[in-house]
Amino acid sequence: MNIVSTLVTAALTLGAIGVVQAQATVKPDGQWRAAFGLGASMSSGNSKGNNLSLSGDGVRATTQDKVSLYGSGQYASSAGTTTAEQMRLGGRYDRNVSTDLFAFGGLDLDRNKFANLQLRSRLSGGLGYHVLKAPDTTFDLFGGLSFTADKYIDPMVVDSRSRSSYSYAGLLLGEESTHKLSDTTSFKQHLVLVPNLKNGGEYLANWDAGLGVSMSKSMSLNVGFSLARNSDPGFGRKTTDTLLTTGVSVKLD
To answer: pTM of the prediction?
Structure first.
Protein backbone atom coordinates (compact mmCIF):
# COMPACT_ATOMS: atom_id res chain seq x y z
CA MET A 1 0.00 0.00 0.00
CA ASN A 2 1.50 3.37 -0.99
CA ILE A 3 1.85 6.27 1.46
CA VAL A 4 -1.20 8.18 0.15
CA SER A 5 -3.45 5.15 0.53
CA THR A 6 -2.04 4.55 4.01
CA LEU A 7 -2.78 8.15 5.08
CA VAL A 8 -6.32 8.12 3.66
CA THR A 9 -7.15 4.78 5.25
CA ALA A 10 -5.78 5.85 8.64
CA ALA A 11 -7.62 9.17 8.55
CA LEU A 12 -10.91 7.49 7.67
CA THR A 13 -10.42 4.97 10.44
CA LEU A 14 -9.84 7.78 12.94
CA GLY A 15 -12.89 9.68 11.72
CA ALA A 16 -10.95 12.89 11.26
CA ILE A 17 -13.23 15.92 11.51
CA GLY A 18 -10.99 18.92 11.03
CA VAL A 19 -7.57 20.34 10.32
CA VAL A 20 -4.76 17.98 11.23
CA GLN A 21 -2.02 19.59 13.34
CA ALA A 22 1.15 18.62 11.44
CA GLN A 23 4.40 19.23 13.37
CA ALA A 24 7.71 19.65 11.55
CA THR A 25 10.96 18.69 13.28
CA VAL A 26 13.10 21.68 14.31
CA LYS A 27 16.90 21.25 14.17
CA PRO A 28 19.37 24.19 13.96
CA ASP A 29 21.31 22.81 10.97
CA GLY A 30 20.06 25.05 8.14
CA GLN A 31 18.03 22.28 6.48
CA TRP A 32 14.36 22.56 5.48
CA ARG A 33 12.05 20.12 7.24
CA ALA A 34 8.32 19.73 6.75
CA ALA A 35 5.26 17.83 7.91
CA PHE A 36 1.99 17.39 6.04
CA GLY A 37 -1.30 16.31 7.60
CA LEU A 38 -4.40 14.77 6.12
CA GLY A 39 -7.85 14.23 7.60
CA ALA A 40 -10.92 12.90 5.83
CA SER A 41 -14.30 11.38 6.54
CA MET A 42 -17.16 10.24 4.32
CA SER A 43 -20.60 8.94 5.22
CA SER A 44 -23.61 7.74 3.23
CA GLY A 45 -26.99 6.14 3.88
CA ASN A 46 -29.07 7.77 6.60
CA SER A 47 -26.29 10.35 7.11
CA LYS A 48 -24.53 11.93 4.15
CA GLY A 49 -21.45 14.02 4.69
CA ASN A 50 -17.87 14.59 3.60
CA ASN A 51 -14.93 16.27 5.27
CA LEU A 52 -11.44 16.92 3.91
CA SER A 53 -8.62 18.81 5.59
CA LEU A 54 -4.97 19.39 4.75
CA SER A 55 -2.20 21.10 6.66
CA GLY A 56 1.49 21.81 6.27
CA ASP A 57 4.28 22.96 8.56
CA GLY A 58 7.77 23.83 7.28
CA VAL A 59 10.81 25.02 9.25
CA ARG A 60 14.38 26.00 8.41
CA ALA A 61 16.46 26.81 11.49
CA THR A 62 20.06 27.73 12.22
CA THR A 63 21.76 28.88 15.42
CA GLN A 64 21.06 32.50 14.34
CA ASP A 65 17.62 32.50 12.69
CA LYS A 66 14.49 30.52 11.84
CA VAL A 67 11.98 30.59 9.00
CA SER A 68 8.55 29.06 9.68
CA LEU A 69 5.84 28.43 7.07
CA TYR A 70 2.42 26.99 7.85
CA GLY A 71 -0.94 26.48 6.26
CA SER A 72 -4.21 24.59 6.59
CA GLY A 73 -7.47 24.19 4.76
CA GLN A 74 -10.80 22.55 5.55
CA TYR A 75 -13.88 21.75 3.50
CA ALA A 76 -16.96 19.94 4.80
CA SER A 77 -20.46 19.23 3.52
CA SER A 78 -23.57 17.53 4.88
CA ALA A 79 -26.47 16.30 2.75
CA GLY A 80 -25.16 18.30 -0.19
CA THR A 81 -24.82 21.57 1.76
CA THR A 82 -21.42 23.09 2.48
CA THR A 83 -20.90 23.37 6.24
CA ALA A 84 -17.25 24.46 6.47
CA GLU A 85 -14.87 26.24 4.12
CA GLN A 86 -11.79 27.90 5.54
CA MET A 87 -8.10 28.41 4.89
CA ARG A 88 -5.11 29.71 6.83
CA LEU A 89 -1.63 30.51 5.50
CA GLY A 90 1.27 32.23 7.18
CA GLY A 91 4.96 32.62 7.73
CA ARG A 92 7.37 34.13 10.24
CA TYR A 93 11.05 35.01 10.30
CA ASP A 94 12.95 35.08 13.60
CA ARG A 95 16.47 36.51 13.98
CA ASN A 96 18.49 36.27 17.18
CA VAL A 97 19.65 39.66 18.47
CA SER A 98 21.43 38.13 21.46
CA THR A 99 21.48 34.78 23.22
CA ASP A 100 17.93 35.17 24.51
CA LEU A 101 16.47 38.11 22.54
CA PHE A 102 15.15 37.83 18.97
CA ALA A 103 13.39 40.03 16.42
CA PHE A 104 10.57 38.73 14.24
CA GLY A 105 8.36 39.64 11.30
CA GLY A 106 5.34 37.74 10.04
CA LEU A 107 2.45 37.59 7.60
CA ASP A 108 -0.84 35.72 8.22
CA LEU A 109 -3.73 35.18 5.79
CA ASP A 110 -7.15 33.83 6.78
CA ARG A 111 -10.35 33.02 4.91
CA ASN A 112 -13.57 31.70 6.47
CA LYS A 113 -16.75 31.62 4.40
CA PHE A 114 -19.09 31.11 7.35
CA ALA A 115 -17.53 33.96 9.30
CA ASN A 116 -18.17 36.17 6.22
CA LEU A 117 -14.41 36.65 5.92
CA GLN A 118 -13.16 36.77 2.34
CA LEU A 119 -9.61 37.55 3.41
CA ARG A 120 -7.87 38.74 6.57
CA SER A 121 -4.27 39.88 6.09
CA ARG A 122 -2.04 40.66 9.04
CA LEU A 123 1.51 42.01 9.00
CA SER A 124 3.35 41.95 12.30
CA GLY A 125 6.77 42.59 13.75
CA GLY A 126 8.45 42.98 17.10
CA LEU A 127 10.76 41.41 19.65
CA GLY A 128 10.69 38.15 21.55
CA TYR A 129 12.50 36.51 24.45
CA HIS A 130 13.65 32.90 24.79
CA VAL A 131 12.54 32.21 28.35
CA LEU A 132 13.56 28.56 28.17
CA LYS A 133 15.74 26.71 25.67
CA ALA A 134 16.22 23.10 26.76
CA PRO A 135 16.57 19.97 24.59
CA ASP A 136 13.08 18.78 25.53
CA THR A 137 11.30 22.10 26.20
CA THR A 138 11.27 25.60 24.71
CA PHE A 139 9.21 28.61 25.80
CA ASP A 140 9.13 32.04 24.12
CA LEU A 141 7.35 35.32 24.84
CA PHE A 142 6.94 37.91 22.08
CA GLY A 143 5.26 41.23 21.40
CA GLY A 144 5.10 44.01 18.87
CA LEU A 145 2.83 45.85 16.47
CA SER A 146 0.52 44.59 13.74
CA PHE A 147 -1.63 45.86 10.90
CA THR A 148 -4.79 43.91 10.03
CA ALA A 149 -6.90 44.35 6.89
CA ASP A 150 -10.24 42.50 6.55
CA LYS A 151 -12.32 42.05 3.39
CA TYR A 152 -15.84 40.66 3.80
CA ILE A 153 -17.87 38.45 1.48
CA ASP A 154 -21.01 40.49 2.20
CA PRO A 155 -21.05 43.99 3.72
CA MET A 156 -21.46 43.88 7.50
CA VAL A 157 -21.73 46.35 10.37
CA VAL A 158 -18.32 46.97 11.92
CA ASP A 159 -17.56 49.92 14.19
CA SER A 160 -21.18 51.20 13.83
CA ARG A 161 -21.08 51.28 10.01
CA SER A 162 -21.86 48.87 7.17
CA ARG A 163 -18.54 48.04 5.52
CA SER A 164 -17.10 45.71 2.88
CA SER A 165 -13.60 46.08 4.36
CA TYR A 166 -11.99 47.24 7.60
CA SER A 167 -8.37 47.78 8.62
CA TYR A 168 -6.65 48.80 11.82
CA ALA A 169 -3.36 48.88 13.70
CA GLY A 170 -2.99 46.71 16.77
CA LEU A 171 -0.65 45.35 19.34
CA LEU A 172 0.53 41.76 19.03
CA LEU A 173 1.19 39.79 22.21
CA GLY A 174 1.93 36.09 22.37
CA GLU A 175 3.67 33.05 23.73
CA GLU A 176 4.57 29.64 22.34
CA SER A 177 6.18 26.47 23.62
CA THR A 178 7.27 23.01 22.50
CA HIS A 179 7.54 19.94 24.72
CA LYS A 180 9.08 16.54 24.05
CA LEU A 181 7.10 14.42 26.49
CA SER A 182 8.77 11.12 25.54
CA ASP A 183 10.74 9.55 22.69
CA THR A 184 7.50 9.22 20.70
CA THR A 185 5.25 12.00 22.03
CA SER A 186 5.49 15.76 21.50
CA PHE A 187 3.26 18.74 22.28
CA LYS A 188 3.28 22.33 21.09
CA GLN A 189 1.04 25.34 21.61
CA HIS A 190 0.84 28.90 20.33
CA LEU A 191 -1.19 31.84 21.68
CA VAL A 192 -1.59 35.25 20.01
CA LEU A 193 -3.64 38.21 21.27
CA VAL A 194 -4.20 41.24 19.01
CA PRO A 195 -5.78 44.24 20.80
CA ASN A 196 -7.26 46.81 18.41
CA LEU A 197 -5.56 50.20 18.78
CA LYS A 198 -8.28 51.87 16.70
CA ASN A 199 -11.12 50.86 19.00
CA GLY A 200 -10.17 50.19 22.60
CA GLY A 201 -11.55 47.00 24.11
CA GLU A 202 -11.82 45.11 20.81
CA TYR A 203 -9.41 42.26 20.07
CA LEU A 204 -8.70 39.03 18.22
CA ALA A 205 -7.23 35.97 19.92
CA ASN A 206 -6.05 32.58 18.64
CA TRP A 207 -4.79 29.57 20.57
CA ASP A 208 -3.61 26.43 18.77
CA ALA A 209 -2.31 23.29 20.44
CA GLY A 210 -1.25 19.94 19.04
CA LEU A 211 -0.19 16.57 20.43
CA GLY A 212 1.75 14.21 18.16
CA VAL A 213 2.47 10.52 18.75
CA SER A 214 4.94 8.83 16.39
CA MET A 215 3.75 5.61 14.77
CA SER A 216 6.95 5.28 12.71
CA LYS A 217 9.95 7.43 11.80
CA SER A 218 7.90 9.45 9.32
CA MET A 219 4.24 9.05 10.35
CA SER A 220 2.46 10.41 13.42
CA LEU A 221 -0.99 10.38 14.95
CA ASN A 222 -2.04 13.95 15.77
CA VAL A 223 -4.67 15.49 18.00
CA GLY A 224 -5.25 19.23 17.86
CA PHE A 225 -7.34 21.91 19.48
CA SER A 226 -7.92 25.43 18.15
CA LEU A 227 -9.74 28.36 19.70
CA ALA A 228 -10.43 31.63 17.89
CA ARG A 229 -12.15 34.62 19.47
CA ASN A 230 -13.27 37.87 17.85
CA SER A 231 -14.71 40.41 20.28
CA ASP A 232 -16.72 42.04 17.47
CA PRO A 233 -17.62 39.35 14.87
CA GLY A 234 -20.63 41.17 13.44
CA PHE A 235 -24.36 40.87 14.04
CA GLY A 236 -25.68 37.32 14.36
CA ARG A 237 -22.24 35.67 14.59
CA LYS A 238 -20.67 34.10 17.66
CA THR A 239 -17.53 35.51 19.23
CA THR A 240 -15.78 32.17 19.81
CA ASP A 241 -15.05 29.19 17.56
CA THR A 242 -13.43 25.97 18.78
CA LEU A 243 -12.24 22.92 16.87
CA LEU A 244 -11.04 19.51 18.13
CA THR A 245 -9.31 17.40 15.49
CA THR A 246 -7.62 14.04 14.93
CA GLY A 247 -5.63 12.81 11.97
CA VAL A 248 -2.38 11.48 10.57
CA SER A 249 0.69 13.40 9.37
CA VAL A 250 3.86 12.49 7.50
CA LYS A 251 7.25 14.14 8.09
CA LEU A 252 9.87 14.97 5.47
CA ASP A 253 13.16 15.23 7.40
So the answer is: 0.82
